[in-house]
Protein backbone atom coordinates (compact mmCIF):
# COMPACT_ATOMS: atom_id res chain seq x y z
CA UNK A 1 0.00 0.00 0.00
CA UNK A 2 1.19 3.50 -0.78
CA UNK A 3 -0.45 6.67 0.46
CA UNK A 4 -3.96 6.68 -1.00
CA UNK A 5 -3.06 4.08 -3.64
CA UNK A 6 -3.59 0.32 -3.62
CA UNK A 7 -0.53 -1.64 -4.75
CA UNK A 8 0.28 -5.32 -5.18
CA UNK A 9 3.72 -6.91 -5.34
CA UNK A 10 4.32 -8.82 -8.57
CA UNK A 11 7.08 -11.30 -9.35
CA UNK A 12 5.71 -12.39 -12.74
CA UNK A 13 7.29 -10.86 -15.85
CA UNK A 14 7.13 -11.27 -19.61
CA UNK A 15 10.61 -11.14 -21.11
CA UNK A 16 10.71 -8.50 -23.85
CA UNK A 17 14.38 -8.25 -24.75
CA UNK A 18 17.58 -10.09 -23.91
CA UNK A 19 21.24 -10.15 -24.80
CA UNK A 20 23.12 -13.23 -23.69
CA UNK A 21 26.76 -12.17 -23.94
CA UNK A 22 29.66 -12.92 -21.62
CA UNK A 23 30.60 -9.30 -21.00
CA UNK A 24 27.40 -7.31 -21.37
CA UNK A 25 24.27 -9.43 -20.69
CA UNK A 26 20.85 -7.86 -20.21
CA UNK A 27 17.29 -9.07 -19.80
CA UNK A 28 14.41 -6.57 -19.83
CA UNK A 29 10.95 -7.71 -18.79
CA UNK A 30 7.44 -6.33 -18.48
CA UNK A 31 5.55 -6.71 -15.17
CA UNK A 32 2.42 -8.84 -15.53
CA UNK A 33 -0.14 -6.88 -13.51
CA UNK A 34 -3.55 -8.20 -12.42
CA UNK A 35 -6.63 -6.84 -14.20
CA UNK A 36 -7.34 -3.25 -13.14
CA UNK A 37 -3.69 -2.63 -12.18
CA UNK A 38 -0.88 -0.91 -14.08
CA UNK A 39 2.92 -0.97 -14.06
CA UNK A 40 5.18 1.97 -13.26
CA UNK A 41 7.79 0.83 -15.75
CA UNK A 42 9.69 -2.21 -16.94
CA UNK A 43 12.32 -4.30 -15.13
CA UNK A 44 15.95 -4.69 -16.23
CA UNK A 45 18.33 -7.31 -14.89
CA UNK A 46 22.02 -7.76 -15.59
CA UNK A 47 21.77 -11.35 -16.79
CA UNK A 48 21.43 -13.24 -20.06
CA UNK A 49 18.39 -14.91 -21.55
CA UNK A 50 19.25 -18.31 -20.09
CA UNK A 51 18.68 -17.01 -16.56
CA UNK A 52 15.17 -16.10 -15.39
CA UNK A 53 14.63 -12.35 -15.38
CA UNK A 54 12.30 -12.51 -12.40
CA UNK A 55 12.66 -9.76 -9.85
CA UNK A 56 9.96 -7.89 -7.99
CA UNK A 57 8.08 -4.64 -8.36
CA UNK A 58 4.60 -3.29 -7.67
CA UNK A 59 1.52 -2.66 -9.77
CA UNK A 60 -0.91 0.11 -8.83
CA UNK A 61 -4.68 -0.06 -8.90
CA UNK A 62 -6.29 2.31 -11.38
CA UNK A 63 -9.16 3.43 -9.19
CA UNK A 64 -8.53 7.04 -8.17
CA UNK A 65 -7.12 10.36 -9.31
CA UNK A 66 -3.68 9.63 -7.92
CA UNK A 67 -2.99 7.09 -10.68
CA UNK A 68 -3.38 8.05 -14.34
CA UNK A 69 -2.62 6.60 -17.75
CA UNK A 70 0.22 8.38 -19.59
CA UNK A 71 -0.75 10.86 -22.28
CA UNK A 72 1.82 9.23 -24.57
CA UNK A 73 5.43 8.05 -24.60
CA UNK A 74 8.47 9.89 -25.87
CA UNK A 75 11.31 7.87 -27.35
CA UNK A 76 14.66 8.15 -25.56
CA UNK A 77 16.65 5.99 -27.96
CA UNK A 78 16.18 3.27 -30.58
CA UNK A 79 18.59 0.95 -32.34
CA UNK A 80 17.75 2.46 -35.72
CA UNK A 81 15.14 4.60 -37.41
CA UNK A 82 12.52 6.75 -35.74
CA UNK A 83 9.48 6.42 -33.54
CA UNK A 84 5.87 6.06 -34.58
CA UNK A 85 4.04 9.28 -33.78
CA UNK A 86 1.41 9.07 -31.10
CA UNK A 87 -1.44 9.99 -33.42
CA UNK A 88 -0.45 7.17 -35.77
CA UNK A 89 -0.55 4.60 -32.99
CA UNK A 90 -3.66 2.61 -32.28
CA UNK A 91 -3.94 0.28 -29.30
CA UNK A 92 -6.37 -1.83 -31.28
CA UNK A 93 -4.09 -2.18 -34.30
CA UNK A 94 -0.67 -2.12 -32.66
CA UNK A 95 -1.25 -3.56 -29.22
CA UNK A 96 0.81 -6.69 -29.26
CA UNK A 97 3.52 -5.70 -31.70
CA UNK A 98 4.72 -2.86 -29.51
CA UNK A 99 5.64 -4.67 -26.30
CA UNK A 100 4.50 -8.26 -26.25
CA UNK A 101 7.19 -9.94 -28.31
CA UNK A 102 10.46 -11.26 -26.99
CA UNK A 103 13.55 -10.25 -28.92
CA UNK A 104 17.21 -11.13 -28.73
CA UNK A 105 20.66 -10.55 -30.11
CA UNK A 106 21.98 -12.68 -32.93
CA UNK A 107 25.57 -13.77 -33.46
CA UNK A 108 26.38 -10.78 -35.69
CA UNK A 109 24.53 -8.09 -33.79
CA UNK A 110 21.05 -6.95 -32.85
CA UNK A 111 18.55 -9.07 -34.75
CA UNK A 112 15.51 -6.90 -34.01
CA UNK A 113 14.57 -3.39 -32.99
CA UNK A 114 15.21 -2.13 -29.49
CA UNK A 115 13.63 1.12 -28.29
CA UNK A 116 13.42 2.84 -24.90
CA UNK A 117 10.54 5.13 -23.95
CA UNK A 118 9.58 7.56 -21.19
CA UNK A 119 5.98 8.18 -20.12
CA UNK A 120 4.57 11.67 -20.71
CA UNK A 121 2.11 12.54 -17.88
CA UNK A 122 -1.29 14.07 -18.73
CA UNK A 123 -0.28 17.22 -16.78
CA UNK A 124 2.58 18.59 -14.69
CA UNK A 125 0.77 17.36 -11.58
CA UNK A 126 1.86 13.79 -12.38
CA UNK A 127 5.21 12.03 -12.64
CA UNK A 128 6.43 8.91 -14.41
CA UNK A 129 8.73 6.73 -12.30
CA UNK A 130 10.28 4.21 -14.69
CA UNK A 131 11.11 3.77 -18.35
CA UNK A 132 9.80 1.18 -20.81
CA UNK A 133 11.24 -0.96 -23.60
CA UNK A 134 9.69 -2.20 -26.85
CA UNK A 135 10.96 -4.45 -29.63
CA UNK A 136 9.41 -2.26 -32.32
CA UNK A 137 9.16 1.44 -33.20
CA UNK A 138 5.56 1.60 -32.02
CA UNK A 139 4.86 3.23 -28.70
CA UNK A 140 4.16 1.04 -25.67
CA UNK A 141 0.55 0.24 -24.86
CA UNK A 142 -0.51 3.17 -22.67
CA UNK A 143 -3.13 1.24 -20.67
CA UNK A 144 -0.47 -1.13 -19.30
CA UNK A 145 1.43 1.67 -17.56
CA UNK A 146 0.66 4.52 -15.21
CA UNK A 147 2.01 7.75 -13.80
CA UNK A 148 1.32 8.97 -10.27
CA UNK A 149 0.31 12.25 -8.65
CA UNK A 150 3.16 14.37 -7.33
CA UNK A 151 1.66 14.26 -3.82
CA UNK A 152 2.70 10.60 -3.46
CA UNK A 153 6.14 10.97 -5.08
CA UNK A 154 9.47 11.02 -3.21
CA UNK A 155 12.96 11.74 -4.49
CA UNK A 156 15.04 8.57 -4.74
CA UNK A 157 18.74 8.11 -5.52
CA UNK A 158 20.57 6.95 -8.60
CA UNK A 159 21.92 3.42 -8.30
CA UNK A 160 24.39 1.43 -10.38
CA UNK A 161 24.48 1.20 -14.12
CA UNK A 162 22.65 -1.96 -15.15
CA UNK A 163 23.72 -2.03 -18.78
CA UNK A 164 25.40 -0.03 -21.53
CA UNK A 165 25.07 -0.71 -25.24
CA UNK A 166 28.22 -1.98 -26.96
CA UNK A 167 28.43 1.28 -28.88
CA UNK A 168 28.10 3.29 -25.68
CA UNK A 169 25.20 5.36 -27.00
CA UNK A 170 22.58 4.19 -24.49
CA UNK A 171 22.67 2.98 -20.89
CA UNK A 172 20.22 1.77 -18.24
CA UNK A 173 20.46 2.81 -14.58
CA UNK A 174 18.79 1.34 -11.52
CA UNK A 175 17.27 3.16 -8.58
CA UNK A 176 19.48 2.85 -5.49
CA UNK A 177 18.26 0.46 -2.79
CA UNK A 178 17.32 2.11 0.50
CA UNK A 179 15.44 1.53 3.73
CA UNK A 180 14.18 5.12 3.56
CA UNK A 181 11.84 4.69 0.59
CA UNK A 182 10.05 2.01 -1.41
CA UNK A 183 12.34 0.06 -3.75
CA UNK A 184 10.46 -0.43 -7.01
CA UNK A 185 13.22 -2.10 -9.10
CA UNK A 186 12.61 0.20 -12.06
CA UNK A 187 15.20 1.54 -14.48
CA UNK A 188 15.95 4.89 -16.15
CA UNK A 189 17.35 4.95 -19.68
CA UNK A 190 19.82 7.54 -20.95
CA UNK A 191 20.89 8.34 -24.51
CA UNK A 192 24.59 8.01 -23.77
CA UNK A 193 27.01 6.12 -21.50
CA UNK A 194 26.81 8.51 -18.56
CA UNK A 195 24.11 8.65 -15.86
CA UNK A 196 20.77 10.46 -16.28
CA UNK A 197 19.95 13.53 -14.23
CA UNK A 198 19.06 12.83 -10.61
CA UNK A 199 15.55 14.25 -11.11
CA UNK A 200 14.54 11.10 -13.03
CA UNK A 201 14.97 8.87 -9.98
CA UNK A 202 11.69 8.95 -8.06
CA UNK A 203 9.66 6.57 -5.92
CA UNK A 204 6.33 6.55 -4.11
CA UNK A 205 5.43 7.21 -0.50
CA UNK A 206 4.94 3.94 1.42
CA UNK A 207 2.07 3.45 3.82
CA UNK A 208 2.10 0.39 6.07
CA UNK A 209 -1.18 -1.47 6.55
CA UNK A 210 -1.67 -1.80 10.31
CA UNK A 211 -2.22 -5.23 11.90
CA UNK A 212 -5.81 -6.12 12.75
CA UNK A 213 -6.75 -4.83 16.23
CA UNK A 214 -7.57 -8.33 17.47
CA UNK A 215 -7.74 -11.91 16.35
CA UNK A 216 -6.37 -15.39 16.87
CA UNK A 217 -4.65 -17.60 14.29
CA UNK A 218 -4.71 -21.34 14.88
CA UNK A 219 -2.06 -23.40 13.09
CA UNK A 220 -2.56 -27.07 12.22
CA UNK A 221 0.00 -29.49 10.77
CA UNK A 222 -1.56 -31.62 8.02
CA UNK A 223 0.29 -34.98 8.16
CA UNK A 224 1.17 -37.33 5.32
CA UNK A 225 -1.96 -39.46 5.78
CA UNK A 226 -4.12 -36.40 4.96
CA UNK A 227 -2.26 -35.47 1.78
CA UNK A 228 -4.10 -36.76 -1.30
CA UNK A 229 -2.29 -37.31 -4.59
CA UNK A 230 -3.14 -34.71 -7.24
CA UNK A 231 -0.70 -35.48 -10.05
CA UNK A 232 2.43 -37.50 -10.68
CA UNK A 233 5.03 -37.45 -13.41
CA UNK A 234 5.13 -41.17 -14.32
CA UNK A 235 8.23 -43.21 -13.59
CA UNK A 236 10.55 -43.84 -16.52
CA UNK A 237 13.81 -45.52 -17.42
CA UNK A 238 15.80 -42.50 -18.58
CA UNK A 239 17.25 -41.23 -15.30
CA UNK A 240 14.98 -38.18 -15.06
CA UNK A 241 13.37 -36.98 -11.86
CA UNK A 242 9.77 -37.81 -10.98
CA UNK A 243 7.50 -35.47 -9.04
CA UNK A 244 4.32 -36.02 -7.06
CA UNK A 245 2.03 -33.21 -5.89
CA UNK A 246 -0.42 -33.66 -3.03
CA UNK A 247 -3.47 -31.70 -1.89
CA UNK A 248 -3.89 -31.34 1.90
CA UNK A 249 -7.18 -32.26 3.55
CA UNK A 250 -7.35 -29.99 6.60
CA UNK A 251 -9.88 -30.25 9.45
CA UNK A 252 -13.18 -28.38 9.16
CA UNK A 253 -12.61 -24.64 9.48
CA UNK A 254 -8.94 -24.77 8.50
CA UNK A 255 -7.53 -23.85 5.08
CA UNK A 256 -4.12 -24.89 3.76
CA UNK A 257 -1.36 -22.42 2.92
CA UNK A 258 -0.46 -24.40 -0.19
CA UNK A 259 0.17 -27.85 -1.60
CA UNK A 260 2.92 -30.40 -0.94
CA UNK A 261 5.35 -31.55 -3.64
CA UNK A 262 7.88 -34.37 -3.35
CA UNK A 263 10.49 -35.86 -5.62
CA UNK A 264 9.69 -39.40 -6.67
CA UNK A 265 6.51 -41.46 -6.65
CA UNK A 266 6.40 -42.41 -2.97
CA UNK A 267 5.15 -40.13 -0.21
CA UNK A 268 7.59 -39.79 2.69
CA UNK A 269 6.22 -40.37 6.16
CA UNK A 270 7.37 -36.92 7.31
CA UNK A 271 5.43 -35.13 4.56
CA UNK A 272 3.22 -32.33 5.88
CA UNK A 273 1.79 -28.89 5.11
CA UNK A 274 0.51 -26.14 7.41
CA UNK A 275 -3.13 -25.09 7.52
CA UNK A 276 -4.58 -22.16 9.46
CA UNK A 277 -7.83 -20.93 10.95
CA UNK A 278 -8.57 -17.35 12.01
CA UNK A 279 -10.88 -16.68 14.96
CA UNK A 280 -11.87 -13.66 16.97
CA UNK A 281 -12.96 -11.43 14.11
CA UNK A 282 -9.50 -10.23 13.05
CA UNK A 283 -8.71 -10.13 9.33
CA UNK A 284 -5.64 -12.33 9.70
CA UNK A 285 -6.22 -14.41 6.57
CA UNK A 286 -7.54 -13.66 3.10
CA UNK A 287 -7.97 -15.63 -0.09
CA UNK A 288 -5.86 -14.64 -3.12
CA UNK A 289 -7.50 -12.27 -5.56
CA UNK A 290 -6.31 -14.21 -8.61
CA UNK A 291 -3.53 -16.45 -9.96
CA UNK A 292 -0.72 -15.97 -12.47
CA UNK A 293 0.46 -19.02 -14.40
CA UNK A 294 4.14 -19.79 -13.76
CA UNK A 295 4.44 -22.86 -15.98
CA UNK A 296 2.42 -25.44 -17.86
CA UNK A 297 2.91 -28.41 -20.16
CA UNK A 298 1.76 -26.70 -23.39
CA UNK A 299 5.35 -26.41 -24.67
CA UNK A 300 6.46 -29.84 -23.52
CA UNK A 301 6.05 -33.38 -24.81
CA UNK A 302 3.81 -34.31 -21.90
CA UNK A 303 0.30 -35.43 -22.91
CA UNK A 304 -1.34 -34.73 -19.53
CA UNK A 305 -2.50 -31.13 -19.10
CA UNK A 306 -1.02 -29.61 -15.96
CA UNK A 307 0.06 -26.18 -14.75
CA UNK A 308 1.60 -24.38 -11.77
CA UNK A 309 0.08 -21.11 -10.56
CA UNK A 310 1.25 -18.28 -8.31
CA UNK A 311 -1.45 -16.78 -6.07
CA UNK A 312 -1.71 -12.98 -6.04
CA UNK A 313 -2.59 -11.76 -2.52
CA UNK A 314 -4.69 -8.74 -1.67
CA UNK A 315 -2.75 -5.70 -0.40
CA UNK A 316 -1.22 -6.28 3.04
CA UNK A 317 -1.11 -10.09 2.73
CA UNK A 318 1.40 -12.72 1.62
CA UNK A 319 0.73 -16.09 0.01
CA UNK A 320 3.17 -18.82 1.03
CA UNK A 321 3.14 -21.32 -1.82
CA UNK A 322 2.21 -22.07 -5.42
CA UNK A 323 -0.61 -24.30 -6.65
CA UNK A 324 -0.62 -27.09 -9.25
CA UNK A 325 -3.60 -28.09 -11.37
CA UNK A 326 -4.35 -31.00 -13.70
CA UNK A 327 -5.81 -28.62 -16.27
CA UNK A 328 -4.89 -25.29 -17.85
CA UNK A 329 -7.68 -23.42 -16.04
CA UNK A 330 -6.74 -21.39 -12.96
CA UNK A 331 -7.68 -22.92 -9.59
CA UNK A 332 -10.34 -21.52 -7.30
CA UNK A 333 -9.24 -18.64 -5.10
CA UNK A 334 -10.82 -20.54 -2.18
CA UNK A 335 -8.19 -23.29 -2.48
CA UNK A 336 -5.70 -21.60 -0.12
CA UNK A 337 -5.41 -18.58 2.15
CA UNK A 338 -2.81 -15.85 2.44
CA UNK A 339 -1.60 -14.41 5.75
CA UNK A 340 -1.53 -10.84 7.01
CA UNK A 341 1.97 -9.37 6.77
CA UNK A 342 2.21 -9.15 10.57
CA UNK A 343 2.20 -12.97 10.74
CA UNK A 344 4.81 -13.54 8.03
CA UNK A 345 8.58 -13.54 8.23
CA UNK A 346 11.36 -13.99 5.70
CA UNK A 347 11.86 -17.71 5.08
CA UNK A 348 14.62 -19.53 3.30
CA UNK A 349 14.91 -21.42 0.07
CA UNK A 350 14.50 -25.10 0.86
CA UNK A 351 15.72 -28.07 -1.13
CA UNK A 352 15.18 -28.37 -4.84
CA UNK A 353 12.22 -30.73 -5.14
CA UNK A 354 12.25 -31.25 -8.90
CA UNK A 355 13.22 -29.91 -12.28
CA UNK A 356 12.38 -31.09 -15.76
CA UNK A 357 15.87 -30.85 -17.21
CA UNK A 358 16.05 -34.53 -18.23
CA UNK A 359 12.42 -35.55 -18.35
CA UNK A 360 11.28 -36.96 -21.74
CA UNK A 361 7.69 -36.20 -20.70
CA UNK A 362 7.97 -32.67 -19.33
CA UNK A 363 11.38 -31.58 -20.54
CA UNK A 364 11.66 -28.72 -22.97
CA UNK A 365 11.14 -29.19 -26.65
CA UNK A 366 10.80 -25.42 -27.11
CA UNK A 367 11.89 -22.36 -25.21
CA UNK A 368 9.84 -21.52 -22.14
CA UNK A 369 8.99 -24.96 -20.72
CA UNK A 370 11.90 -25.30 -18.29
CA UNK A 371 10.96 -25.14 -14.61
CA UNK A 372 12.36 -25.88 -11.16
CA UNK A 373 10.29 -26.55 -8.02
CA UNK A 374 11.68 -25.50 -4.63
CA UNK A 375 10.59 -26.28 -1.08
CA UNK A 376 9.60 -23.28 1.08
CA UNK A 377 11.64 -23.36 4.28
CA UNK A 378 11.37 -21.62 7.63
CA UNK A 379 13.56 -19.25 9.60
CA UNK A 380 14.93 -18.82 13.09
CA UNK A 381 11.68 -17.24 14.31
CA UNK A 382 9.11 -18.74 11.94
CA UNK A 383 7.62 -22.08 10.92
CA UNK A 384 8.13 -23.50 7.44
CA UNK A 385 4.81 -23.91 5.60
CA UNK A 386 6.44 -26.83 3.74
CA UNK A 387 4.74 -25.74 0.52
CA UNK A 388 6.52 -25.25 -2.81
CA UNK A 389 7.22 -22.49 -5.31
CA UNK A 390 8.08 -22.92 -8.98
CA UNK A 391 10.58 -20.85 -10.91
CA UNK A 392 10.95 -20.83 -14.71
CA UNK A 393 14.34 -22.10 -15.80
CA UNK A 394 16.95 -24.06 -13.89
CA UNK A 395 18.54 -21.26 -11.87
CA UNK A 396 18.03 -20.31 -8.23
CA UNK A 397 15.20 -17.75 -7.94
CA UNK A 398 16.55 -14.20 -7.93
CA UNK A 399 13.74 -12.86 -5.72
CA UNK A 400 14.16 -15.21 -2.77
CA UNK A 401 13.16 -12.63 -0.19
CA UNK A 402 9.69 -12.49 -1.74
CA UNK A 403 9.20 -16.07 -2.88
CA UNK A 404 10.13 -17.82 0.39
CA UNK A 405 8.07 -16.77 3.42
CA UNK A 406 7.20 -18.51 6.67
CA UNK A 407 4.69 -18.26 9.53
CA UNK A 408 5.53 -16.52 12.82
CA UNK A 409 6.45 -19.38 15.15
CA UNK A 410 3.59 -20.31 17.50
CA UNK A 411 0.86 -22.95 17.65
CA UNK A 412 -1.65 -20.20 18.30
CA UNK A 413 -0.99 -16.55 17.49
CA UNK A 414 -2.99 -13.85 19.19
CA UNK A 415 -3.21 -10.22 18.14
TrEMBL record:
What are the Low complexity biased-composition ranges? Answer: 91-104
Q: By what name is this protein known? A: Uncharacterized protein
Q: Which PANTHER family match?
A: VACUOLAR PROTEIN SORTING-ASSOCIATED PROTEIN 62, VACUOLAR PROTEIN SORTING-ASSOCIATED PROTEIN 62-RELATED
Top-level taxon of the source organism:
Eukaryota
- Specify the taxonomic lineage: Eukaryota, Metazoa, Cnidaria, Anthozoa, Hexacorallia
Q: Which organism is it from?
A: Nematostella vectensis (Starlet sea anemone)
Ranges where the record places region Disordered: 84-107
Amino acid sequence: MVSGVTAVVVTMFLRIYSENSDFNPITISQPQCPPGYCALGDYAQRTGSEAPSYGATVCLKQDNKLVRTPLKFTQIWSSEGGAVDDEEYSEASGAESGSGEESSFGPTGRSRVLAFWRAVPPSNQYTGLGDVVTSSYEQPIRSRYCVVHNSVVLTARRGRRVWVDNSGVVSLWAHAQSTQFLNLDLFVANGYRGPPADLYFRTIVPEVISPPPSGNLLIEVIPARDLNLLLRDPIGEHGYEDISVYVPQPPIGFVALGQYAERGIFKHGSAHVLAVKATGGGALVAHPIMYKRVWDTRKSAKTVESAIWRPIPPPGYHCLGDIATVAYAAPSTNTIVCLHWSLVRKGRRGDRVWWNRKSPLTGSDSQGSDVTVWRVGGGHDCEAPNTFVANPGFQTPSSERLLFKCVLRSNSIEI
